[in-house]
Amino acid sequence: EFTTNRRCFEEDFKTQVQAKEWLELEEDAQKAYVMGLLDRLEVVSRERRLKVARAVLYLAQGTFGECDSEVDVLHWSRYNCFLLYQMGTFSAFLELLHMEIDNSQACSSALRKPAISIADSTELRVLLSVMYLLVENIRLERETDSCRWRTARETFRTELSFSMHNEEPFALLLFSMVTKFCSGLAPHFPIKKVLLLLWKVVMFTLGGFEHLQVLKIQKRAELGLPPLTEDSIQVVKSMRAASPPSYTLDLGESQLAPPPSKLRGRRGSRRQLLTKQDSLDIYNERDLFKTEEPATEEEEESAGDGERTLDGELDLLEQDPLVPPPPSQASLSAERVAFPKGLPWAPKVRDTDTLVGLPRPIHESVKTLKQVTRVGSQSSGIGTNQGKFDYQSPSYWLFYQIALLKILLAAAPTSKAKTDSINILADVLPEEMPITVLQSMKLGIDVNRHKEIIVKSISALLLLLLKHFRLNHIYQFEYVSQHLVFANCIPLILKFFNQNILSYITAKNSISVLDYPCCTIQDLPELTTESLEAGDNNQFCWRNLFSCINLLRLLNKLTKWKHSRTMMLVVFKSAPILKRALKVKQAMLQLYVLKLLKIQTKYLGRQWRKSNMKTMSAIYQKVRHRMNDDWAYGNDIDARPWDFQAEECTLRANIEAFNSRRYDKPQDSEFSPVDNCLQSVLGQRLDLPEDFHYSYELWLEREVFSQPICWEELLQNH
Q1: Cβ neighbours of residue 499 under 8 Å, at least 6 residues apart?
Q2: Positions of the region Disordered (predicted)?
Q3: What CA–CA distances, in Å, run from 296 to 20, 238, 288, 419, 671?
């Protein structure tokens, strides 16, 4: 398709500009040509319109036909994207996107086809690709950006954040595409591109994790709270992953180990044998936690029960584990590396009780305790940010998150295809299925890569939204979190990790010579089965590591300080699943695994803690201490999930009260009689927003036409 885009541009460019190339034009001439392109977008013919859209896409891709290096391609892609935006390209493509979304002929044609292929979404993919490149290039800030570019970035951010020209915000339009795809009304939508663009738009308009930290600091300052002393991401960067002894020691430990009496005086020499660990020492299959006592029969049985429980909950397919190759000797260098000593986190305490009647020494102790007490911004006062981050209506988010979880379930590497599941491969499967081994291998890599990107975008999107919701208003966060829990998000994530995570993170589902911008500059070598099997030179797939960390952080968000949800982790036998994830020697991933293990240790019993002392030690070393938390020695093995249902019900009542105050019209009385007369109800005047008549068709499409109605069931019930 890169070649097709280039050909469409060159054919159009030659008819408009004589004896010159794009890079040779002055800026005014480039603007004039772009204006002409946008005018030619308004033709009636779909075929001619697609050719012009491909020409615009070639500009956004960096006019690689005139470049000599990958750096040049990326430079001109960024330059062209700013130029295209300033000439109104995004607005023009937004109108075309609306037309394609409302194209009932394309939807009905896709529904009638027995198998949907990549050809059914050609127009949508071109439009979304242009919009993605515009968002991604303009979103990224650089010190060398001119004042004009900085102004354009802020204007674009505002345009994406608010309702412009009486239309819904762009993110909500993309969310509606997701729900329409999941409902089966538009199976040809290129869902991978939609989700990627949605994630980048949310990151651009609301801000990423670094911006969240800045917002957190600002909000605490406004509320008169003490400043944050730690940035979690920065603390984790200085942490060392828990790593096993070196590979050579593992091989000859039984033959070379001296007697224990001699080892006592040789700790210094033993330290010299420790090898320097990479940020991801993953090729060492042997686990630090494998040196613990063998698992008891009860634990092995519970692990099996947990897998069966998850299978019954989600009905996903297990994946056979793959053992990665051992590391080479060159990677086992014996360099010493220095890490900060002591515990990485400052201790905290969550709450204190009254001190009435206690002696003075206790008062002094509690005074010291309060100095490390963390007061959250939501505890000191709740204020909802108005403007660009209002979560519209609670009912919308319920549909959105269920749709995202359905796609995540279909994209999980352990999922199996079912007749009633959604088809997420419509924008990757070719029109003609492969007939050779080489074609089959290439398609298999494409399909796996396609699923990995979907998991990455959904996990990042959900985590980013939850963090922004929590900063915006605690009940918005709790509302979305509770519905994620009710939609089986917890067992879904656990099922995702119930695979060989080590193999997932070392997977090589990419073909480096076909990656952008490499493929646009170099002559493509002939692909062979051997080159595809060899993969690229990267030892790890950072995309998959990013997804795993996001899912673990999401699981932590859902279960933190929620006893009923912690008990769900226990009921689903998550401890063996999470322990296996500790084989990945990466500090951040291990931290969030250990956090999840810490909150459930008191429910796992004394025998589990006794058999997993290395894990308990790792929790002590790496997870923040809560001064009044009895995680290491408390016992509550008789607790059951229903013991904590009152907590969940109370939370739901508070959320509904908030939503009623925030979004519902005030009622005269809760005892007002219900009007059952159809004519009377239809005759009532309703106070609608001033701009409702502009977006009435969008509301009708989203709330009425897009919702499937089972008339037979309706008649049976009434």
Answers
A1: 318, 319, 321, 413, 414
A2: 246-270, 285-307
A3: 76, 35, 18, 40, 60
Q: Which of 120, 142, 167 is the last residue of a domain?
A: 167
The per-type count for the chain, helices as H runs and strands as E runs, is 36, 0
Copy the structure tokens of residue 129: 């690709």
Q: What is the DSSP-derived secondary structure letter of residue 144? A: T
**Residue 436: count of CB within 10 angstroms of its CB:** 9
Preceding amide of 326 cis, omega within 30: no
Pair 479, 597 in one domain = yes
The secondary structure of 162-213 as a DSSP string is S--TT---HHHHHHHHHHHHHTTS-TTS-HHHHHHHHHHHHHHHH--HHHHH
d(CA 366, CA 372): 10
Give pLDDT tens digits for 573-595. 999 999 999 999 999 999 999 99
Q: Are 122 and 70 within one domain?
A: yes
- How many alpha carbons lie under 13 Å from residue 414 in its C-beta half-sphere? 24
Torsion over CA of 193, 197, 198 and 199, rounded to 10 degrees?
Answer: 110
Per residue, what are the HEC states of 348-373? Answer: EECCCCCCCCCCHHHHHHHHHHHHCE
Q: Which of 561, 596, 552 is nearest to 576 (CA)?
A: 596
As for how many domains the chain has, the answer is 3
- Of 287, 289, 209, 238, give the one whose Cα is nearest residue 622: 238
Q: How confident is the model at residue 673 (pLDDT cuts 50, 70, 90)?
A: low
| 295 domain-assigned | no
What does the DSSP assignment read for 603-660?
HH-HHHHHHTHHHHHHHHHHSPPBTT--TTT---TT--GGGGHHHHHHHHHHHHHHHH
Q: Is residue 512 part of a domain?
A: yes
- Residue 603 within any structural domain of the chain: yes
Q: Write out the two tokens for 297.
A: 């029969």
Residue 310 has a CB neighbour count (10 Å cut-off) of: 24
* Structural domain boundaries enclosing 693: 678-716
* Tokens coding 289: 């936690």
> Minimal CA–CA distance to 482: which of 647, 352, 634?
647
Q: Are residues 693 and 639 in the same domain?
A: no
DSSP single-letter state for residue 286: S
Alpha-carbon gap, residue 205 to 159, rounded angstroms: 9
| CA–CA dist 165, 694 (Å, integer) | 9
Last residue of a domain, one of 144, 167, 190: 167
Same domain for 609 and 710? no
**How far does CA 378 lie from the centroid of its chain?**
24
**How far is residue 356's CA from residue 363's CA, in Å, rounded to a whole number?**
9
CA–CA dist 94, 300 (Å, integer): 55
pLDDT in tens, 225-254: 888 888 888 888 888 888 533 333 333 333
Nearest to 570 by CA among 230, 303, 371, 352: 303
Residue 197 backbone phi and psi in degrees, to 5? -65, -40
Mean pLDDT of the chain: 79
Q: What is the DSSP string of 420-444?
A: TS--TTTTTS-SS---SHHHHHHHH
